[in-house]
Structures are given as C-alpha cells and as structure tokens.
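Module 6 notes. Inverse folding takes a fixed backbone as the condition and produces residue identities as the prediction. Think of it as a translation problem where the source language is geometry and the target language is the twenty amino acids. Below is one complete input and output pair. Work through it position by position during the lab.
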C-alpha cells in the first residue's frame, strides 16, 4: 500500500518545505484504516488517563486494511509522524493489537512487558497466525 501523495506535497518536499502536518494529512488520506486504528488507540489512552496505555484490539476486516496497518507501523517516517501527531509512543504486537503509550511510560515495566518477546508470545492465538 503506497501513499497517495498530492503534487503540491511532492513539490513542497522537493523544496524542503514539507512539514509534519502535510505528511500526516497524506497518511490520514492514504491509509484511512491505519489512521482509524491509531486514532482509536490514542483516544483510548486520552479517555482513560489512569490506564497505562490505550489500545485497539480488533482484527482488520480485510487484507487491504491489514496492509494499511502494517505499512503505517512498519515505516519509520509514518510511525514517527503518527506518534508526534497524537503525542504517544506506539507499540505493535500483531495485526489486531496496537497500543498507544504516553511518552513518559516508555520507561515503565508495563511498556517493557508489552514489547517483550514474552508479551508477543502471550498475545498469539491460532486464529491470528496469519497476522
């Protein structure tokens, strides 16, 4: 899944005038499912300030949506822009579990557990093997 980048944004990038706001708009418009997932995780984090993190745990409805999510979270540029935009640090276990941590929580035990090999293994189920 490639990004659909308007000519004006390409021109701005060539002139070194592109900013995060423009890039985030491209991501939002090009990867709407991924945007929805990250937005939901970030909103869950905001809505529950006492929680260690917000999350989204719904499997994608199709391979196209799964591809969007993988594209967004595998790209350093896209993931970084989303983290800056939402003010969170994203953690990703598989195609249905995305977490949004407050930046201050990155040094916490719960964050380290979430991103650990143990956390990954405990989040696997037979029906999610293709994620």
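Target side of the pair, the amino acids:
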């Amino acid at each position: 899944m490639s990004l659909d980048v308007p000519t004006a944004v390409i021109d701005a990038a060539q002139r070194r005038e592109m900013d995060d706001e423009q890039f985030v708009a491209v991501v939002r418009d090009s990867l709407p499912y991924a945007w929805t997932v990250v937005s939901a995780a970030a909103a869950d984090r905001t809505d529950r300030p006492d929680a260690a993190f917000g999350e989204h745990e719904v499997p994608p409805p199709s391979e196209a949506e799964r591809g969007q999510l993988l594209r967004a979270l595998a790209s350093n540029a896209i993931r970084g822009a989303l983290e800056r935009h939402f003010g969170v640090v994203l953690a990703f276990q598989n195609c249905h579990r995305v977490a949004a941590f407050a930046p201050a929580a990155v040094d916490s035990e719960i964050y380290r557990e979430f991103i650990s090999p143990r956390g990954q293994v405990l989040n696997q189920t037979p029906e999610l093997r293709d994620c």
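Reference fact for the lab report: The chain has one domain: 7-125.
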